[in-house]
Amino acid sequence: MTTFREQSPSTGPGPSSAPFLQACAGGTPERVPVWFMRQAGRSLPEYRRVREGVPMLESCRRPELVTEITLQPVRRYGVDAAIFYSDIVVPLKAVGVDLDIVPGVGPVVAEPFRTRADLDRLPPLDASHVPYVTEAVRCLIAELGPTPLIGFAGAPFTLASYLVEGGPSKDLARTKALMYGDPALWRDLLDRLARIAGEFLKVQIAAGAAAVQLFDSWVGALPAADYRALVRPASASVLGMVAKAAPGVPRIHFGVGTGELLADLGEAGATVVGVDFRVPLDEAARRTGGRHALQGNLDPAILFAPGDVVDARVEATLRAGRAAPGHVFNLGHGVPPGADPAVLARVVDVVHAWAPGD
Question: Alpha-carbon distance 289 to 307, whole Å?
């Protein structure tokens, strides 16, 4: 299964008829579509080869490299959507925030945001800040043909957590202290980040992205009431900017540990709610009131189990997904760096071979 699945993306029907977009719209395509968060990344040997010696943020600024990395899992697995290769802090770097992605650590901000004066370090973003994104998306659209491209951005809460903490944090103590202790500054910080994230998504859509995903990686650390009062308005602002600019473009909203927030993720303006591996999809459909297509949600740890276990858990996820008005198969988080590409190829085969009556 490690052989590349060469495709001819320049022929065939256009992206609008793609199973991925049909499922996002709540339809029932001929097969359940599948893609993987972090499918273009460290688990692929071809990714490691082309990234060798190239820092992460630099790789995101090279359109030819972004194009190649984004295409790699499409060639290898035959997935139903490509995810734009970038990082959630790219737009922050583009507007002048002094940060870097440190191997083995993650995003590190040189001077963390702590006061109102720090807001001046977050000017508005526009397409002129990220010409390499526009170029890369256009190159990808030319190569992908019928396979839709998903653009993405980090949600305001998660972006704020990196800015306030200065890097990754297990307890988000400084972030929560600012949020609770100075709600006016918190609101203004999230407002600026919402505009940056919204514009970043609009740039990708204008260049040809067929769908977008808003990642709120750390928002599961919040109680539902605090999310609704202090975070959801900013995420709704991002998704509202997309809906106004491109109402037909699916808006996927995903967070980790968000079982208690699933309905709120949808209410923030998502057309598709991403579900992590902690909540079964049939229960997620109940919690979201059957109003949204769902994406998910195989536990990434299952990729390291025996093949028959992988098959059984994939099929169980597919059966649970029938409760939703549309289902895009995915993992319940990103592909782990140590995952075997052959196992991911096996998952794709099982999903594509599955029939709704099974």
Answer: 34
Catalytic: which of 42, 62, 228, 286? 42
Residue among 31, 75, 87, 226 flagged as catalytic: 87
77, 162, 216, 287: the active-site residue: 162
**Would you give the DSSP letter of residue 220?**
G
pLDDT one-digit tens code per residue, 152-165: 999 999 999 999 99
Note if 38 is an active site residue: yes
Nearest to 317 by CA among 273, 272, 284, 341: 284
* Measured distance CA(258)–CA(261) in Å, rounded: 5
Active site (annotated) includes residue 51: yes
**Cβ count within 10 A of residue 96:** 12
Q: By percentage, how much of the chain surpasses pLDDT 70? A: 95
Q: Which domains does the chain have, with CATH numbers?
A: 15-353 (3.20.20.210)
pLDDT in tens, 203-233: 999 999 999 999 999 999 999 999 999 999 9
Instruction: Report, as ranges of residue numbers, the positions in the chain whose pLDDT lies below 70.
Output: 1-16, 356-358
- 75 catalytic residue (yes or no): no
Q: What pLDDT, on a 0 to 100 scale, did the predictor assign at position 17?
A: 85
Residue 162 is among the residues annotated as catalytic for this protein: yes
- Cα 341 to its chain centre, rounded Å, is 20
Phi-psi region of 167 (alpha: psi -120 to 50; beta: other; left: phi over 0): left
Q: Please name the residue ranges forming H helices in the chain.
A: 19-24, 45-51, 56-60, 63-77, 90-94, 131-144, 156-165, 173-181, 183-207, 224-230, 232-245, 262-267, 281-287, 307-321, 341-353
Amino acid residing at 312: A
